Amino acid sequence: YILIFSHDNLSAGFASDGNNSTSTIVCLIPHALLSTSSLLFHTEKERVIGKPMIWSEFRAHNIIFAMRSIICSFMAWLSVHNHHQSPWRNISVHTSCLAILASCVGADYATLKLRANHLESTTATMPYWEQCHPT
Fold it and tell me: pTM to 2 decimals?
């Protein structure tokens, strides 16, 4: 973030004025590394009731949705970088749509393979604070 905001252009390279910075792409790398580095650590196979801890299914969902964000951000940058010319814009839009749909399928598959307790849900049974309403 320091790299992005240290420049005069606060658009992080997404500006359509021709000031397309590769620092945008560089900033996506730590996002990907942070998500995937969680695979180095042991997590519980199932949620520990009453504690907001990461478990295998939740970690898989986090990685899947982080990668979706990275792919869509990269595709948006690619379109802007190429001045939204027809082939690049179309590739970006279609790839982003595919990434979104694939992340939904991936999350469902991760749930199918990693959910230990079928009465649980990654968010519906999360122990939220007292003033947080479920609706």
Answer: 0.75
Distances (CA, A) of 121 to 56, 61, 72, 100, 113: 13, 12, 26, 21, 14
Helix (H) or strand (E) holding 80: helix 56-81
Q: Which residue has the tokens 């991936």?
A: 106
Rg of the Cα atoms in the chain: 18
Tokens representing residue 91 in the block? 């590739």
> How does DSSP assign 83-133, residue by residue?
TT-HHHHHHHHHHHHHHHHHHHHHHHHHHHHH-S-TT--TTTT----TT--
Task: Report how far apart the first and last C-alpha atoms of the chain are (Å, whole number).
Answer: 33
pLDDT confidence tier of residue 1, bands split at 50, 70 and 90: very low
pLDDT-derived band at 10 (thresholds 50, 70, 90) equals very low
Measure the CA–CA gap between 18 and 32, rounded to whole angstroms.
26
Q: How many CB atoms lie within 10 A of CB 80?
A: 21
8 A C-beta contact, residue 61 and residue 131 = no
Output the pLDDT for position 126. Answer: 66
User: What distances in angstroms separate CA 127 from CA 6, 25, 52, one per listed residue?
Assistant: 38, 36, 7
